[in-house]
From TrEMBL:
Chain ranges of the SAM-dependent MTase RsmB/NOP-type domain: 169-447
Swiss-Prot/TrEMBL catalytic activity: cytidine(967) in 16S rRNA + S-adenosyl-L-methionine = 5-methylcytidine(967) in 16S rRNA + S-adenosyl-L-homocysteine + H(+)
EC number: 2.1.1.176
Residues annotated as binding S-adenosyl-L-methionine: 258-264, 282, 309, 328
Superkingdom of the source species: Bacteria
Subcellular location: Cytoplasm
Gene Ontology MF annotations: methyltransferase activity
Protein name per the record: 16S rRNA (cytosine(967)-C(5))-methyltransferase
Keyword Cytoplasm in record: yes
Length: 453
């Protein structure tokens, strides 16, 4: 008999949870190698991401029912986390089905003692209910357990944004972001795509972040012909805002220094209407191939890719070459925890510091490649000031040539101009603000002469 969805989920959880594999890669691999039907694919993904995202909460729960959890074999511990996750958070799965499935998996993988333990713990949890976290002290520990965020990270968010906001951020990381797609305006208008999707049974609305964006409230876009035909691309709304704020004009020459897998490069190329050129770089050829593939799927012929370290691009290009530059920098990824939950357990404060040094070097090397009247967008999918506004502040304080483009703030969509994340050095979008990823972006330019100068 072929493996059940839960058995597949357990395999991935053991590899990710205890052996440091990347969840999204293993999920893709499992979906590719196994013919799960579309409903099972959804359940499988939900089980892996959901359990992983709640790992610290589930570990606390398990401690209430098993004395020495450290002695459990890894797969038994993850089987119990997986089952607790379903009992606590998934209404659509009946409790008895959760217990039966767990016992069946235990029978296949372990001896009679383990089967008894799994059965006993799950039945006890159902009888007794799961613990409350209200009395856990101090508050950082409570929030850490309640939202399954490592304590150091919780403390970091509290230091940066205060207790209330930090709690909202950590809680939002447990809730799915709105699904969004970007319409390829070279092929169809946003309105026509929206109407067609509604006719086909989807629930769709226009995104306030981008003139090309649609929010998909119901319906599986991966199964719609628009996806294979390159009419829509899956992209978070915050990423679409980058294309919007680049103020691209036909025939421009654009540099995208960190471009793989190509979401923003292809948006920029679409905005050029296949004119001009987007020079797209990333560290390795394996990565730039992904950009080539995406470009071909969307019918774009104005993208040139090459594998190269962004910190060496000054060896390839003269100063003042580009009309527009995008540095969508490698970052800690604390804005995309809900789709890559392993991030919160594996990244360290040292990683944040190291990344900020790379980001700083990138800015230093690449900024001079901008034309005198050009615009450079720096963005990350994180919410750490060290990689975002503090980095920009430090970069600008060490020189006299560049500034934050003041029109960046007035050109933002109106609802964002008022948002809590507006700082003098750019816009921080938090995951609890608008049901999107957490994201930072800012726009830099050469200092403009004022009347007094
Ligand atoms: C945030 S991702 C880019 C996402 C991409 N802009 C998109 O929209 O699809 C950051 C990228 O930077 C790349 N990267 C990391 N270090 C780099 C370096 N030194 N030079 C160039 N690219 C680098 C990573 O491989 C990764 O693909």
């Amino acid at each position: 008999m072929s493996k059940t969805v839960r058995a597949h989920a357990l395999d991935v959880l053991v590899k990710v949870g205890d052996n440091g594999a990347f969840s999204h890669l293993l999920i893709d691999q499992t979906l590719k190698n196994n013919a799960l039907d579309i409903r099972d694919q959804g359940l499988f993904t939900e089980l892996v991401y959901g359990t992983l995202n709640r790992k610290l909460t589930l570990a606390y729960d398990l401690d209430q029912f098993v004395k020495k959890t450290g002695k459990l074999q890894s797969w038994v511990k993850w089987l119990l986390y997986l089952s607790f996750y379903q009992l606590k958070y998934l209404d659509k799965v009946p409790d008895h089905a959760v217990v039966n499935e767990a016992v069946e998996i235990a029978k296949k993988r372990g001896h009679q003692g383990i089967v008894k333990l799994v059965n006993g713990v799950l039945r006890q949890a159902l009888r007794q209910g799961f613990p409350s976290y209200e009395t856990i002290e101090p508050v950082t520990k409570r929030l850490s357990i309640e939202t399954s965020t490592p304590e150091w990270l919780m403390e970091r968010w509290i230091d940066s944004y205060g207790l209330e906001k930090a709690e909202k951020i950590a809680t939002a990381q447990l809730i799915k972001a709105d699904k969004a797609v970007r319409v390829n305006l070279l092929k169809m208008t946003r309105e026509d795509v929206k109407q067609q999707l509604i006719e086909d049974g989807f629930e769709v609305e226009a995104s306030p972040f981008s003139s090309k964006g649609l929010i998909i409230n119901a319906g599986n876009i991966l199964k719609h012909p628009f996806f294979d035909e390159g009419i829509v691309t899956i992209q978070d709304q915050t990423s679409m805002l980058v294309g919007e704020m680049m103020a691209v004009e036909k025939d421009q020459v654009i540099l995208d220094s960190c471009s793989a897998p190509g979401g923003k490069t292809t948006d920029l190329a679409e905005r050029l209407s296949n004119t001009g050129r987007v020079y797209s770089y990333d560290l390795h050829e394996k990565k730039t191939t992904l950009v080539d593939k995406k470009a071909a799927q969307l019918g774009l012929i104005n993208i040139k890719t090459k594998a190269m370290d962004a910190r060496e691009l000054d060896q390839l290009f003269e100063v003042k070459t580009f009309d527009r530059i995008l540095i969508d920098a490698p970052c800690s990824g604390f804005g995309v925890i809900r789709t890559k939950p392993d991030i919160k357990y594996t990244k360290t404060s040292e990683d944040v510091l190291n990344l900020s040094m790379i980001q700083f070097d990138m800015l230093n090397t690449i900024m001079p490649l901008l034309k005198e009247d050009g615009k450079l967008i720096y963005s990350t999918c994180t919410i750490d000031p060290t990689e975002n506004e503090a980095l920009i502040a430090e970069f600008l304080s060490g020189q006299t040539r560049y500034e934050v483009d003041p029109t960046f703030f007035t050109e933002l969509p109106a609802f964002l101009q008022q948002s809590v994340g507006v700082t003098p050095f750019g816009l921080q979008i938090f995951p609890d603000d608008f049901h999107t990823d957490g994201f930072f972006l800012t726009r830099l330019q050469y200092k403009q002469a004022t009347d007094e100068t």
